Amino acid sequence: MDPTTLNELARAVAGEVMRGDPATAVGPDVVIDSRLATPGAVFIAFPGERVDGHEFVDAARAGGAAVAIVTRPVDAGIPQIRCGDAQEALSALARDVVGRARQGGLRTVALTGSSGKTSTKDLIAQVLEAAGPTVAPVGSFNNEIGVPLTACRVTARTRYLVSEMGARGHGHIAWLCGIVPPGIAAVLNVGTAHLGEFGSIDDIAAAKGEIVEAVPAGGWAVLNAADPRVAAMASRTRARIAWFSADGRPGLPGDVQVWASGIEVDALARPRFTLHVADGGAERAAPVALRVLGRHAVANALAAAAVGIAAGLDPADIAGTLSSAGPRSRWRLELTERADGVAVLNDTYNANPDSMRAGLEALRDLGVARRRAHPGARLVAVLGEMRELGPGAAAAHAAVGRMAAEAGVDRLVCLGPFATDLAAGARSADPPVATVDQAEDKSTVAALLAPYLRTGDAVLVKASRGAELDTVAADLLKGGGGECSQS
Length: 487
What we know:
The chain is α/β, with parallel strands linked by helices.
């Protein structure tokens, strides 16, 4: 946010200045972690089950914070603003920051989807940054804390705000849109992530669609024409429609159509394609060579392109930016080659059945590419638990085991509470995975695979974030000896 006075800050959060001169200037940063405090920062003390932010007000002051927003006074040498609720104070401050910036011309972009949100957010941010100062979330800041914290980074100079929005229930996205009202809203897909919390895919679609209902008539809804549940959201918005599809030209009525043709992958499994845009005038096309891995990245790139078109950018410029855009968030198909020539594909940030399929398909494509230089290269998958799938979790894990076989995995290592289901699915496929292991503990995986792996092999490591399989990927990288190279 732009620097403001204690008095103005108190007004924004409906609080009361308890200590300090109301005319004191504070900002620009807003933090809830005292370790992230910077000179002038606003520290919001969140009370929690394990950690109470009020206990860290003095630590925030030591880090440079100029004011603490609290729900009760704290004995610390720092100005304080008392409010009724820390979450509402953060949300109210973000609404105030965004509202002021929109009056100055800020354009807001929001996106949601069951998978690919963060990777697509990173691409959208890079497309928009080519046109002006852009604020986007760090990592997956997509909940009731991450969305307003990101919004609080907006200043008078910011031209675009990109907001990633997740949902764990009905009304969540609508509430987030109350903080960041979207002028452009994109829905990537509707899948089985959080199925255990929603109960059905149709309920997930109903919740995701709240984002397009929040767009005004003059705005844009960017929709995936290849996903029937997303396509059906066109009836839920007053906005103009920009369709995108990785399955050819969308055959649906709308204001803009964006699609890809000639999709292929290079030696590192990075997609190349021709970007097509039709927006009422002559159809335009431009080549794109992505630096991110996996064929699923084509749909993400097309969504980013459609957002760019809705923002008024030129297709050729968008294609150029996409071709130079790189991954910004860790542990999402992060490819590193060990010194001994074994490639490790770290996709451990999160997992659901849709992203598991995408990860396994990326591994398959990587294997095809690597066998050109190493004809005997083999594929290994280390797969763990997918969380929040509800009663169908066992069947979903068995299906992923079959996906591993379909992707041509030579050896599968299964971890976690659904390891038996993963293994059963892999063994029941036709043909089955040749070698299936059930590791007792994630700390044993690297030692289990050490005698097996050889130059050219590729290993995918993937599970839900709570399984913390990033440590397995790290152990595998240590096992190669010498330096590693990252792509």
